[in-house]
Amino acid sequence: MLMALNRHMLHNSLLKFQQHIATSSNTFKVVASNVVANNNGLNHTNRRSSSFQQQSSSSDSEGDDTLKSNPYYSAYAEKLQDLKKKNASAYREALRRLREKQRETVDTANAAVVNTTDTVSEKIDSTETQPQAKPKRRPSQTLLVKPKTLEQVMNIELLRDKSWRDVSEIWLAYHRTRDNTLSAVIPLNQFEKFYNQSIKYPMFLLPLPRNNSGYEFIFAQFQHYQENSTSNCTVHLTPLISYQTFKENAPECMTVEYYTDLCNSDKAIEHSGSDDESCVLMRSTYDGKLLSAAEAACLVNQLRIFYGLDSGVADKEKLLKSFNEGDTTFKHSDVIALVETLSI
After folding, report:
1. Residue range 147-171: average pLDDT?
2. Do 119 and 31 meet the contact criterion of CB atoms below 8 Å apart?
3. Which position has the higher pLDDT, 255 or 18?
4. H or E segment to which residue 77 belongs
5. Which residues, other chains included, contact 243 with Cβ-Cβ below 8 Å and sequence gap of 6+?
6. CA distances from 123 to 33, 113, 261, 305 (A)
7. Angle between helices 88-129 and 60-69 (to 10 degrees)
C-alpha cells in the first residue's frame, strides 16, 4: 500500500491544510468565548458599582447592608458597630472611607477587564489576518527499510562481461514482453541530477490527461534509502482522490523503480567500452485497470521532465518548491498550464 512506511510524514497538503484551518477555528471560538465572559464580568462589575453608589446615598442602616458586601467588612465589623454606638459622626466618616476603598477596587477591576478584552480582540484580529500556511513537507527517508536491489530482479553476475550497450539491450528486451510494464535506461549523470531534485522535493502532483475530459491529478511520492549519495529509489503513485480518501492505505496505480547497482564501485561492470556510459536501469509496473500503457508512459515522462534539469528549470522548480513547502500560492492550474507547454 502507498506510503505505508512513511506514516510520520504529512499525508497530504490538502488534508493537513484542512486540519490546520479546523484547529485555528477552534482557537478563535475559545478566544471569542473568553471575550464574552470578560464582557459579562465587566457588566456584572458595573452593576455592582452602580448598586454601591445608590446605597452610598441612603441612610446609615442601609449603609450597614452595603458594608456586609464590602470585602473589608469582616475585619472591621465589630469595631465599626462599637464606633456607631459611641460616635455617629466618626462612624459615618469610617463608612465613607470604606465606600471610597470599595469604589477604587471596582474601578481597578473595570480597567483590568477592559484591558483584557482589548488584548484578546487584538489577538483575534492579528490571527485572522495572518495567512494560514500549510505544513512543510519533510524528505521521505525510510532508512530502516531494506532497499530493493537489482539482484532481486535479475542475475547481475551474468552481466559482468557485458558492455553497457549490451546491458541496456538485455534490460529493455527483458521487459518488452511483460504485461503492464515499462522500462528505460538513463545515463548516470542525468540520473544524479534527477535524484538530487527528488531529495529536495520528494512529493508532487502530476496532471494526467484523460481523453477529452480534462485532467486527473496523480499524487507521486519518492522513497529514498540514502540521502547523501545516489542510490536506488522508488516512486509511488496513486490518484489524488484515492489518497485523500484512504490516506496511506490508498492503492497504487503505478510504481517506478530506479536501480543504480551496476554503477556502484563494488559492482560496476568491469569491461565497459570506451564509448559506453554508466547507466541507471528503470522499470515501471502499473495497474492496467487504472492506466493505459500511454498514460503510464506519460507519467514516467512527467517525472523525468519535472525533476530533470533541462529547459524551463526555474518554472518547474518553483512549482516543486511551493508544493513541498506548503506555500499557499501553489495552484493546480499552474501545473496544468506548464504541462500543456511541454512535449510529452
Report:
1. 88
2. no
3. 255
4. helix 73-86
5. 2, 11, 12, 219, 250
6. 13, 15, 56, 45
7. 40
